[in-house]
Prior knowledge:
heterodimer; A: 268 residues; mainly alpha; 11 helices; 73% helix; B: 418 residues; alpha+beta; Rossmann fold; Coagulation Factor XIII, Chain A, domain 1; 2 domains; seven-stranded mixed β-sheet; six-stranded mixed β-sheet; 9 helices; 20 strands; 36% strand
Amino acid sequence: MVIEAGRAERHYWRDLWTYRELFLFLAWRDILVRYKQTAIGIAWSLIRPVITMLVFTVVFGRIAMLPSEGVPYPVLVVAAMLPWYFFSTAVTEGSNSLIQNANVVSKVYFPRLIVPISAVAVSLVDFVISLLLLAVLMAWYQIMPSARVLFLPVFLGLVVILTVGLTLWLAALNVRYRDFRYVVPFLMQVGMFLSPVGFSGVVVSEGWRAVYSLNPMVGIIEGFRWCLLPGYDLDMRAVWFGALISFLILGAGINYFRRTERSIADVI
Amino acid sequence: MGWSIKAEGLGKDYVIRHEAGHRYVALRDVISDSMRGLFGMRRTAGERPASTRERFWALRDVSFEIDQGERVGIIGRNGAGKSTLLKILSRITDPSLGSVRLRGRVASLLEVGTGFHPELTGRENIFLNGAILGMTKIEIRRNFDQIVEFSEVQKFLDTPVKRYSSGMYVRLAFAIAAHLESEILIVDEVLAVGDTAFQKKCIAKMEEIGRSGRTVLFVSHNMGPIAALCSRCILLAAGELQSIGPTLDVISEYNRVAELHTTVDIEPSMRNRGDGRVRFLSVSISNKRNEPLNSFLIGDEIKLEFLVESNLSEEISFWVIIFDATGRPLLSSHQRDIEIVRIGRGRFRLEFLTSGMGLMPGSYTISAGAFDQRLTFLEWVDNCQQFEVLTSFQDGVAFDGRWGAVNLPAQWSLSPSG
C-alpha cells in the first residue's frame, strides 16, 4: 500500500468495504449505550412521538380545524412523523457524530464516512418505534393499509438518501465551524413547521405547491401518507422534486465530506 | 524477507494562525467577515490585527526503510515529530510531501483504549475496539480467548469498563491491539501506564510478534523498554531524521544531544542547607570517558563534575548520595572516609568517579554537599543531577528482571571439598 501526499483517495471505496463491520459495530454501540444509560430508554423514544401527536392533533386538528382528507387526525400526524423523526434525529445526531467521536477519529484510521452514516442507522430504531405506534393507532381506528404500502420502501429509501446527504454535509461543516452545533437543532425546529408534519400538504394553495415542493421532505412525507393511508392523494410533482433534490444533496454531501475528510484529523 | 515500510521524503506542515486562539473557526466570524466584504466595508488597517499565518513543519524530509520482522524504536524529545510520523504511518493524517510504502495491514495503538466506551462491558469493548482497529468479527472471535487470557480480566469480562482499574484498562487495550493479525504493529507511549510486570509482558509479546515476522514500531520516552525491545532506532529532532542505526548507538546520541540535562546549574531552590561559604555552581554528569550522558548500562562507571565556589580556607570534605525514583537513598559516598581536603578562596573543580556500581534499571537522582571539620553542612543540594540505567548490562546482555536494587559484583568459586 502506498501513502502519498494528496493521494489517499485510491483505496477509499475498497477500505469502506473492508470496514463495513465497523459501521454495524458503531451503530450497535450507540444503541446499546442509549438503552443502558437511560432508565426509561425505550419508553423515551415512545413518549416523544405520542406527545407530539397529541399536541399536533389538538392544535392543528381541533383548534385550527385543518382538513385531514378523511383520515383520523392522529393517524395523519403519526404517518408524517415516521419519516420526520427519523430525518430530524438522524441529522441532529449525525452532524455531531464526528466531534463526539473526536478521540477515535484522531487516533485510528478508518473511512470517516462510517461515523455519520452509522449515526443515521441508529435513528432507524426510532423509525421502527414510530412504525409500531402507527400500527397500534391504525388498528384502533380500524384502518387497513391498501396494496400501496408496498411502495413504502421506496419512500424510506428516499428519506435515507436525503438524510445521509445532509448529515455528511453538516457533520463535515460542524468540524470546521463549531457553531453549526447550535444551528442544526434550530433548522430542524423550523423545518418541522415548514414540512407537512402537523397538517396535510393539501392546505398549501395550488399556486404555492411548486415552491413548497422544493422542500424535499414534502414529497417524502406525503408519499408516506399515500402509502399508508387509503384514499390519500399524492401530488407526484412533489415526489419527483423531492427525489431529485435528495439525490443532489447526497451527491453534494458526499463530495463535500470527501474533500474535507483528509484534514479532519488535523482540525478536530 | 524484504522491506516492510519505506518512507521517502516525508513532510507534514501545519499552518498556524497566530491571531486565532482556537483551532477551529466560528461560522459567525466567517459570516461577519464576508458581510463586511459584501457591503464594501473594508477593514481599515489596524482595526483587527491581520492574522499572521505561519507554516510549521512538524516533519521534514524523513526517509527510512524498515525490514519485515524488525523491531524499531522511535525516539526524540517532545515536539520532535514522533506523533506526526506515527499518524502518517497509521493513515490518520496525510503527509504534505513525500510517500510511504507499507507492505500489509497496519495496526496502531496510539492511545490506550481508543474507542472504549465506559458504559460497555469488557466483552463488548473487545469487539468494538477490535472493529475500530480494523479486525473482522471472525478474527476477533478467533482471538477472543487469547485476548482475555493476556489481559487477565477474565473475572470482569461482563463488568462495564468504567469500573476497571487503570491497569486493567491498559492491559485489555494492549491485548486487543497485540492480537490484531496485522503485518505492522505501531505502539505509541502506552505502556507508561501499566505496572512493571505488565510492561515486561507487553515487551515480551512485542518481541514475539517481531519473531513471527511482523514489524513492530515502538515509541517511548523511556529508554529502558526501547533498549530491551528494539534492534534499531530512529532519532527525530525538530521534525527531521537525525539518525537511524543500532539502538544503543542511537540512544547514546539522543543522550548526548541532551546537553541541557548533562550539566545542571544549581538553583537556590535545590539548596537544602548551607550558609553559602562553600557553594556548588553546577554539576555535570558523564561516563568515565568524559562523554556527557544521562543514561548508563548496568555496571557502568559514572562521573560527576562539580564547579565549586569557596569563601573560606579550611579543611572540608564532600559527599554524594544516590536516590532511586521513589526517593529512597540507595548509595552514599563520603570523601572523609578517605581524605579531608584543604580548600582556599576561589573556584574549584571537584571530580567524582564511581567504580562500576551495578545499579538496576531505573531512574536515579543525586544529592551532594560539603561538611566542615565539625560535620556541619557547608553545602547541601538535592536533586541536582539525574540519570537513568537502561535494561541492559555493560556487555550488551539484556536485563533479565532479577531481584535487588544493585547488582553486586563478587567473586565466586566452586571447588571439590574433601
